[in-house]
Amino acid sequence: MGKSKLGTKFLFGSVMMSLFSLATAGAESVSPLGIFQNHADIGTVLHTGSAQYDAVRDTYTLTASGENIWFISDAFHFAWKQVSGDVALSAGIAFPRPGGNPHRKAVLMIRQSLDAGSVYADVALHGVGLTSLQYRDAPGAVTHEIEASLSAPHSLRIEKRGDYVYLFMAASNGQPLKTSGASIKIPIHGSFYVGIGLCAHDKDAVETAVFSRVELTLPAPVTTSPVLYSTLETVTIASTDRRVVYVSPHHFEAPNWTQDGAYFYFNSDGRILRLPVAGGTPEIIDTGTNIHCNNDHGLSPDQKWLAISDQSQADHLSTIYIVPFGGGTPRRVTVNAPSYWHGWSPDGKTLAFTGQRNGNFDIYTIPAAGGEETRLTTAKGLDDGPEYSPDGKYIYFNSERTGKMQIWRMLADGSNQEQITSDEFNNWFPHISPDGKWMVFLSYGPEVTGHPANKEVQIRLMALSDGKISVLAKLFGGQGTINVPSWSPDSTKVAFVSYQLLPAEEAGTK
Q1: CA 471 → CA 232, 236, 443, 490, distances in Å?
Q2: What angle do CA 327, 294, 488 make, to 5 degrees?
Q3: Which of 349, 389, 426, 427 lies in disulfide reach of 444, CB 3.0 to 4.6 Å?
Q4: Could you tell me which CATH number the domain at 11-217 has?
Q5: pLDDT at position 507, please?
């Protein structure tokens, strides 16, 4: 694909991006700098930075001091163009000098203002090759990041589409830029700045980075048949920083984290797959003739068995089976259907599930060895998502009995049912951390009915000691994001699935 640059011409077919004159106090006046309008140090730096454009090589070289692009305030050198609307900036980035701080950062950035604490999103390449989508979603707020699974990519692109920003990468020369799976909704409106930046990550040092193949374009138009990408991510509850583990142009859902911390289990196209936590290629788990598994599955506490909810029966109604952890012949547990597994008791002897009986969805338990089911809830409206607390005392679940979907809990025998959340959101799928200190759940806006896919949702965290709730992640998702238990065994992280709808051109399918 030929280059399309912002310079003397900024036309994309019949579309022209709005440009704005720059009048920033203290900004250094420079001659034309390739596709960019100006450059300057942002924040407090000890050594003045510089920007040079080599028209023959078509490269940009930045030198910069600056302590960091992080926390609540930034210090770096920035070359920019002021624009509005949707935009995509791509480049290859290299650090020509060896050594330096391993966390020095060269970035492709979209920034609301030139203030040091501005709202921004950037694609950051660190000196050690780590690549991430960094963002500050409010002025002066703490910066967070989504770490990509690929280190030291050959090419990078940051792309703004409406309120969402995406990270694209190419592993090597000749490969197309593809989504990394990292995306974030961030409020950047009106006119803003897009450009390249550099910080030394050491206030006393000066660093250099070279940007090549720099292109500033409009994103490909959204088509009537976008490609759905699924991304398995983890989020650390202490920092709320995220990491992409696996991304695929196929629909998958509902990660379980194994008790030994080594693997994720998730469902895709009716099968259960296993993926190393470090990433790689998923492998299919043998579930015999049960090959229409849905997103209600999970591992026994002793990591010997896998519970699946499968719809391969003649009536196509979900039925619960147990399969050996590594795969094998399924054993049917529930006689009545539909039944959707959601939790194991801590001793591994009992399963908690949602069952539809006579038109009503309620919470049931059944011995893992098979036998009679026991109904625990009888309230009108949907009860769903039952999961045991680690001590086996409680079963947490979500219920719409008060008119809005909220989190409830009851004693394991079904008695003493009490409401845990009461707010404007519709809250689904409570999951209790292995240490018993935290509850994570999925929140839809008040206007959303049910738990549909492809919605703006939040993963929220409650401290069970005092009931305080915080936001772990905001994402595009919903159905399939965290339907089942997904805590890491050390209670420090949660696994989930986010989704992206991208034009076929950018998904690499055309």
Answers
A1: 18, 12, 10, 20
A2: 70
A3: 426
A4: 2.60.120.200
A5: 57
